[in-house]
Amino acid sequence: VNLRDPKERTALAGEYVLGTFDENERRGFERQLQDDATLRAEVSRWHDRVLALASRLEPVPPGPSLWDELEREILDTRARRERAERSLWQRLDVWQLIAGVAVAAVMLFGALLLLTWSAQRDARLVALLQDGSGEASWVVEGRPRSGLSLRPVIPAVGMSVHRASGGSAEFWTQMPGAREPVLLGTLGVDESTEIAASRLPGLVEGQMFGITLKRPSASPEDATPATSVVFTGKVVALPN
Amino acid sequence: MKPICAPLDHHAALAGCMRGELWALRAIAEAEGGALNAMVLRIVGDEAGARKVLKEALLQIFREAERFDPRNGTARGWIFAVVRQRALAARRTLEIELEVERRLAASRSAAAAAAEPAAAADAQPDPISLAFFDGYNREQIAGRCHAPAAAVRQWIRGGLTKLMDLPA
C-alpha cells in the first residue's frame, strides 16, 4: 500500500473505516496508525463522513425505558464499587485490626529496645582465668552495675595460691585499650573475692583480668621483675 | 422524564461522561437514541439483540469517553463509530453461532445443506451498505455481488468519494 500519496491515504483510511480490508490489510494499516497521527486524523474524519450513511436510516426510538435501564446499571455499578471500597477502608473492624496490630508492633519494638538496652547496660560478663597450661583455675563473674566476684574453680587451688604467695597474690584488671593495668586488691583467704562496681574501672567485653604472684626472692641480685603473671583471662558476655 | 430540547453539544456531553455525570449520557441517549437504534437494528437484525447492543455501547461511551480525541474528529462521529463497532462485533458473533447451527443441521440432514440462505435472494445490494451495515469485507462483497474483488474496490472508492462531498 502506498501511504505517501495523499489521495491514496484518504482512500485507504476510508476503506479501513468502512471495514472492507481483509485481515492482513487491516493489521498492516493499524500498525501504520500507531505512529502516524495524521493518518489517525484521516480515520477520524472518515468516522464523521460515514455518519451520512447512518443518517439515511429512519430513526427508531429505542423506547423510554432505555434511559432507566442505563441509569440503574450505572448506579448499581457505582454502589457495588463503593461497597467494595467501604468494605475495606471504612469498616470499623478493619481499622480496629490495623490499630491493634500497630499498637502490638510498637509495644513489641519498645520491649525489644528495652531488653537490648538493659542487656547492654547490665550484661552478665564472665572471664576464665587460666595458667600457662590452659586449665581454667579462676572464674570472674559479674555485671557492670553490681560488681564482680572472683572464685577459684576448685576451692583448694585458691587456698594453695594464697598460701604459696604468702598473701601477696594480687588481682588486676586492664580495660581494652588501656596502657596500664589497675590493681583491684590482694586475694584474701576466703574462697571468693568480691569487688564492688564502684571499685572497678568498668566491666566490659574484652577486658583482661589477671592474678600475679610475688616470687620469693631467690637472691638480692636477681634483676628479673619481682612479680609474674600467673593467671589471665579475657571477659566475654554471656546471654542473659 | 423531561426531554432535553436544545440541540445536543456532543463534545460537551462526552466531557460530562468523562466526569461521570449522568445527565451527559442521558442527553446523548435522548438526542441520538433513535438514529443509533436504527443503525444497530439494521446491523444486528433483531430487536432484542439491538437493544442489548445499544445499552452496552452507551455504557462503553460513558466509561471510555476520555478516549475521544477532539483534535481528530467530531464527538458525534466518535459516538457513532463506537456503537457501530459494537453492533458489528455482536453481528459477527451471531453469524458464527448461526453458521455453527447451520452446519450441525446440515450434518443431520442433507436437505438442509441444499437450502440457500434467504439473504442471497436479495436484489443487487449496494457495496457501501454491505460494508457499513453488514460488516462485509471486500472479498465477501465480491462473493455476494458475483464480481471480481478489484471491481468491488473501485465501486467502494467511488462510493467513498461521494461521501466526501456530503455534509455529515
Shape of chain A: elongated
Fraction of helical residues of chain A: 40-55%
Q: What fraction of residues of chain A sit in β-strands?
A: 15-25%
Structural class call of chain B reads mainly alpha
Largest interface: A-B, 40 and 54 residues
Structural class of chain A: alpha+beta
| Large-scale geometry of chain B | globular
Taking the sheet with the most strands of chain B, its summary is: none
Features:
heterodimer; A: alpha+beta; 8-stranded antiparallel sheet; 7 helices; elongated; B: 168 residues; mainly alpha; 8 helices
Can you describe this structure?
- The complex is a heterodimer of chains A (240) and B (168).
- Chain A is built from seven helices and eight strands, in the order H-H-H-H-H-H-E-E-E-H-E-E-E-E-E.
- Chain A is of the alpha+beta class.
- In chain A, strands 5-4-7-8-1-2-3-6 form an eight-stranded antiparallel beta sheet.
- The radius of gyration of chain A is 46 Å and the shape is elongated.
- With 168 residues, chain B is mostly helical.
- In chain B, 72% of the residues lie in helices and 0% in strands.
- Chain B is built from eight helices and no strands.
- Chain B has helices spanning 10-18, 22-44, 47-63, 75-108, 110-114, 127-134, 138-145, 149-165.
- The longest helix of chain B has 34 residues, at 75-108.
